[in-house]
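Hello,

Our lab assistant flagged a job as stuck in the queue for most of the afternoon. It eventually completed. Since we weren't sure the result was trustworthy after the delay, we are filing this so someone can double-check. Below is the sequence as submitted and the structure that was eventually returned. Let us know if re-running is recommended.
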Amino acid sequence: MEASDNLHVDQTASELTEEPCYFLALPTELILRICDFLDSDIVIEVLGKVCEFFAVLAADDLIWKTRIHKRWPNKRYPLRQVDAMFDWKQACMEREREYRRWTDISNHINRTDIPFGFCVDVVHITSSNHLIMGLRDHTLYSIKLSDIPMPEQSELGDGDVVRDVDTLRLSGLGGRETFQRVAHKGWIWTISSDEEKICSGSWDSKVLLWDYAGQQLSLYKCGSAVLCSTMTGNEILAGTFNKTLVKIDTRVASPVSTILIPRRPILCVEETPNWAIIGNESRQINIMDKKTLKIYSTLRLPAGFPRSMSLKDNLLYVGTKSGIHVYSFDEALGRLTFLELVCL
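-- returned structure --
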């Protein structure tokens, strides 16, 4: 290559390096592809505030709806039909945060060993960030989550436990707001709460009402082992081994009524303002009208009996050995509609 050719190549390279390259000059499709490698939080909360172009992109619901379905193509989302006001941008950020949290459990999950007994049921009190647990050694255990030590400090020494009659104060795990109390004469099968009081049900056929300091408020005899419960305000619904649903008003001293649910023991129960949703060992889910105390409709699961249920925002999650069955619940009609089976 001659000297003149070398000079020409150097000049061309110089021109290429000096000419500015603008990111926004790229095709929109390429910019979106680049954004796919960034967390949605960064695209929305950082890039979205850089200029008007990125602000428009961040506000486009179709982009975030498409992003969700591309990342989780085999997962129906959302599970129920949404209206025009659904915030796809916020939904995408929250879904990705949860996904990161559960795929990197080393940074988000700590293990705390409780040396008193096996835990059968648990409820999280969101207002005070307490975890209330029912144990097989007949005790009710409360701990504040923010007081759980890091994993390397999780083992309790002899000096961490202070015994006082039937109450165990765990000074190493939360001070005066943490307690363990011998509550029943049998396994504690169910714990529920209305964010103000705690309800515990046990194999000893009793339902007990507690305050957050661990002091017993009321006692109700249910005639058979209590396997599940739900609590809303002054009302407690408790399902028992002898196929009865016990309705309790905490303002009176004894249960208000008992309703026989045919066939098998009641394993789980949820309630809405108008309905009680009852799962039993015969693979049935019964919808009961709370005013008339009559079974309004019955649904049979395709496989397995309901081991647990959770109702949130009119979505009912039913746990069985085959997975989690997801239903939408129509409050006006008292009707369940199957949406999805999530296999575990």
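-- support follow-up --
The delay was a queue issue, not a problem with the job. The result is valid. Residues 3-18 form the longest helix (16 residues). Confidence is low (pLDDT under 50) at residues 1-17, 150-176.
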